[in-house]
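help with these tokens:
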Amino acid sequence: QVQLMESGGGSVQAGGSLRLSCVVSGSTLTQYCVAWFRRAPGKERELVAGIDTDGMTTRYADSVKGRFTLSQDNAKSTLDLTMLSLRPEDTAMYYCAAESLPCTVLGDMVPDYWGQGTQVTVSS
């Protein structure tokens, strides 16, 4: 059974930074496309950033390009999301999710597994 656990959320002021971490247990990152999603109050869930099983193909939402960066550690089965220059509109619950093969973050991901989520709050 695959389990995902997020950590690293918190409250920061606009312009600040946070680093979210997702630990994938029960499998390896080479078997799943893994992505960070977020859901803000009153808004639909959106894919923030994700990476394919090849460890190279990535996808970022337009709203976070240039500010957010993924980093993967296959040995530790972790996928981190470094978030810089945070804005109030980045406030949301952030979830780590994994989709089993065949999958690609370049298409519509339909994750099989979800973490519990970690809250990110950015104040102006």
The radius of gyration is 13 Å. The chain has a mean pLDDT of 96. The chain is about 0% helix and 50% strand. The CA atoms of residues 37 and 46 lie 5 Å apart.
